[in-house]
Amino acid sequence: MSTALADLLDFTVVDRSTEEGIVRYRGVIPDVFTIGPKVHGGSVQMMVSHVARRALGELAAGDDVVRLGDVTALAVASDYLAAPDPAELDFAVRIVKRGRTVSLARVDVTQGGRSMVTSTVTLGRLDAGEPRHREPTLLDDLSPVPDENALGLEGTPLGEVMHLAPAVDLAIDPDWFPALRGQTGPPVTRGWIRVKDAGAQPTGLDREFPVLVCDISPPVVMNLGLFGWAPTVQLTTYVRRRPQPGWLRFAANSTEVGRGMFAEDHVVVDEAGALVAQSRQLALIPSGA
């Protein structure tokens, strides 16, 4: 069964060089994964994390194939050089280092011969078990699942801009998004998200889906009355552990919004409250805002 997320992770191998440690893939980013007319940056980064893990396995030999079975992207650092269109993308993956604990890949994304996104991906095994120390987060008092006041995508003004409804169930905490009421407030948002049709999705998706979630919030500067496309300059995402099945909660905030740029932090936890992923992105203030 084809689903939006499955289509996002459907790649064709164009070329493979074991000697050079490079695999070239071609994939398509569907219209679903756009915010307004622009491709959703977290979706591209999810594709990057997927091809990095896949290339590491495809270039391995013998017992290494088994050993790499539970290896996934731990950190993805992406520089966005241009905004790709929802269409075919080419991914050139070079394995920089293959280690027993940590491996490193470089992934260059191009479209029509033009460089779009360049990333480094750190690959290894996710954390597990209880943490040694934990600080409070903005999500500690948020219900593990959406409450009756949660604002969904479908049939709302937000859904007219964020086109991800065929791929995910997404709900925003309206108390933390005054922009939708024509009001202003702190640059903080939070909400809930889960994979739509989870049973039909590719195996292992739960390891890579948090990468997408770490860029899922509407730009927090909307709460300051700054509307429009906020282009991502750089996005670094850390995946900490595999989430429990069900809803993920996310919060995004900015400690300082400048005249031309702002940094936005995401934190993502699962229904049990375990930290799943974190990110920080540098973005531009919407032009004309």
From TrEMBL:
Superkingdom of this protein's organism: Bacteria
Gene3D superfamilies recorded: Acyl-CoA thioesterase, double hotdog domain (2.40.160.210)
Domain Acyl-CoA thioesterase-like N-terminal HotDog: 30-123
All copies of domain Acyl-CoA thioesterase-like C-terminal, residue ranges: 153-285
SUPFAM superfamilies: Thioesterase/thiol ester dehydrase-isomerase
InterPro entries: ACOT8-like_C, Acyl-CoA_hotdog, HotDog_dom_sf, Sec_Metab_Biosynth-Assoc, TesB_ACOT8-like_N
Protein name listed in UniProt: Thioesterase family protein
Organism whose genome encodes this protein: Gordonia iterans
